Amino acid sequence: MKEKVVYWITGSQTLYGADVLEHVAQHSEEMANYVSERMPVTVKYLTTCKSSDEIEAAVKKVNADEDCIGIITWCHTFSPAKMWIRGLSKLQKPMCHFATQYNEKLPYDTIDMDFMNENQAAHGDREFGYIVTRLRMDNKVIVGYYKDEEALKELAAWCRVAAGYAFSKKVKVCRFSDNMRDVAVTEGDKVEAHIDFGWQVDYYPIGDLVEYINKVTDKEVDDMMAEYAKKYKMGTDRIDVVREQAKYEIAIDKFCKDKGGYIGIVDHFGALHGLNQLPGLAIQDLQSKGYGFGAEGDWKIAALGAVMQYMADQKGTGLMEDYTYDLKDGLCLGAHMLEVSPQFAATKPEIQVHPLGIGGKSDPARLVFEGISAPEAIAVSMIDMGDRFRLIVQKIELIKYPKKMPNLPVGGLMWKYKPNFKEGVAAWIYAGGAHHTVVSSQVTAQQMVDLGNMWGIEVVLIDENTEINQFKKDLMWSDVVWKRK
């Protein structure tokens, strides 16, 4: 991600003279360099804009630079905002207005009007903020001293979102099946998703994949088995079954690369003609390498998972499914029939082989493990409301299994809902949240809200402040607003 660039653009004007503008440029470059060293991306000072033409030229450079994922704007001095209209109207990338200052404290003993004129970010921020609001731009505002840890943390989080937004535009999902028959929530408008998010969703018959599987060599399987041995414990003597999954993984990875760089995968247990097993271990290991996965044809979760994994540096993020409650303790056990990512494993996962009662195929190999605990995590769902997409983000707390579950042959997670069990479950259901989610212990709720805002879609947040009656009203008002957009 460090190869991605965020340009730092400073606002000023010619009114203050050459000396002041020289200081503005020096300060801006110093600040950008300091910030860059503490970001997951590279922050580069681009220019100090003093006129409409300079602003438009800067925006054109930003738009044309393939490595640029967004801009940070800041007004060192006052910068009349009419001259920003033409340029900002053409901006095609995310913008963060950093309300900061070169000096942290005022020099009370020496401050004079020269200092005031050169250092008037409070003045410039308001003028700039007005025109951004007037243009109805949905930018991010971060407030704080540029060396302050909290401000830098917020800025780093935003940079990851901007990188995810850019990554999203190139996400391609390979579907080896349609949606599960009669299931509603996994459906969606693929054309609208391509427009809104950049997601290209394509179907290939499972037979095309079978041809790739049949061409996998024993040497390739041996190499994959050696890779498994380094990462996982072997808990079965049915090695032939594990080798079959290795063939699936090699073939799926090759297929996705050969067909144009697919990073999302979709299959369905009811569409496995030509396969001996449902891909389990294969899909789990592919997720550990950054692939997004959607079960039962759920392409939205495959694409969303790929984006969130990129934002999370492939840590603690992947497919999840709300499965069953512990109503006494107010918990939810999440899992899936096979495909939970080993990124969620608290200890070294074990390869096991067990029967699978769904799909009518041979016993599949899969990774079995207990999930991580994390005081701050999120579950995210994407649903199609008919006239728009809705992104639902819920804060959860991942906890250790209260007791061992020796007969459960899958990886899983246990969590508590925010704000509490009753309101957390009710809010999710009122919002229309799906049973498939992407869970992450790395990506934050605020980051997903910011990403939804960049996409220009409805975002519903369920957190510790949610009150169910107000939440229902908010959904009602949101429906009215989004129908008018």
UniProtKB/TrEMBL annotation:
GO terms for molecular function: L-arabinose isomerase activity; metal ion binding. One of its GO terms (cellular component) is cytosol. It holds the Pfam family Arabinose_Iso_C. The keyword Manganese applies. GO terms for biological process: L-arabinose catabolic process to D-xylulose 5-phosphate. Its EC number is 5.3.1.4. Residues 172-313 form the L-arabinose isomerase central domain. The keyword Manganese applies. It is an enzyme of class 5 (isomerase). It comes from the Bacteria. Residues 316-458 form the L-arabinose isomerase C-terminal domain. InterPro entries: Ara_Isoase_C, AraA_central, AraA_N, AraA_N_sf, Fuc/Ara_isomerase_C, Fucose_isomerase_N/cen_sf, Lara_isomerase. Residues 6-166 form the L-arabinose isomerase N-terminal domain. Keywords: Arabinose catabolism, Carbohydrate metabolism, Isomerase, Manganese, Metal-binding. PANTHER family: L-ARABINOSE ISOMERASE. This is L-arabinose isomerase. It comes from Candidatus Borkfalkia avistercoris. The gene is araA.
